[in-house]
Write a structure and sequence with these properties.
The chain is 62% helix and 0% strand. It has 191 residues and is mainly α. It has one domain. Bound molecules: zinc ion. The site of zinc ion has 8 residues, from helix 8.
């Protein structure tokens, strides 16, 4: 999955204004295949920074990208919340009988509820945001043993795969296969 290679496959170091630059490039050159990852990145950045980038893209391309972005952002949030919910209500047993799973899960649900809303304007990190960004820390955070931690990380990774698979559609784009085919058939893209 592209997500797993995100750090290894980066060829260009990060630079200021990169989101606007890449989005403008994608629209001007009609390279749709890079849009899902760019929109994903836009959803994870502070909203004020993303709006600055979207305004810049709008000025450069005269395209309405706000609708796709905001609809996609809501769909992504919903899908990521579903991942967290399926973890919070899943039933599993500690292989080494070291963890009081019922008690730990009750505590996790209570924390999730307390951290269920972001602060104003979508800023701040909810429990779902925290989990999605740190799948490898969730189990330890809730004081599970290493075996349970591994299981919990696996449930989130499975959820992430589902979300990633559906990502293009969230933003009104064709699915990954159609995007790949379009990119491979485009003679202007160097293979
Ligand atoms: Zn355990």
């Amino acid at each position: 999955m592209a997500w797993d290679r995100r750090n290894d496959s980066r060829l260009i170091p990060s630079f200021e204004g990169e989101l606007a630059a890449y989005l403008t490039l994608a629209f001007e050159c009609d390279i749709k295949i890079i849009l899902p990852a760019l929109y994903y990145s836009a959803c994870k950045a502070p909203l004020v920074d993303t709006l600055t980038a979207l305004n810049s893209v709008h000025r450069a391309t005269n395209k309405d990208i706000y609708t796709s972005f905001f609809l996609g952002r809501d769909r992504l949030r919903h899908a990521e919340s579903q991942c967290s919910l399926s973890f919070l209500f899943c039933r599993f047993y500690c292989p080494g009988s070291q963890c009081d799973v019922e008690e730990r899960m009750r505590s996790a649900r209570s924390e999730a509820l307390q951290r269920s809303t972001a602060r104003g304007s979508g800023e701040g990190e909810t429990y779902v945001d925290w989990c999605v960004a740190r799948t490898n820390l969730i189990g330890a955070h809730h004081e599970f043993c290493p075996a349970c931690c591994k299981f919990i990380e696996g449930t989130f990774e499975d959820g992430r795969k589902v979300v990633w698979r559906e990502l293009p559609e969230f933003f009104g784009l064709p699915g990954w296969e159609a995007l790949k085919k379009e990119a491979l058939d485009d003679p202007s893209i160097v293979k």
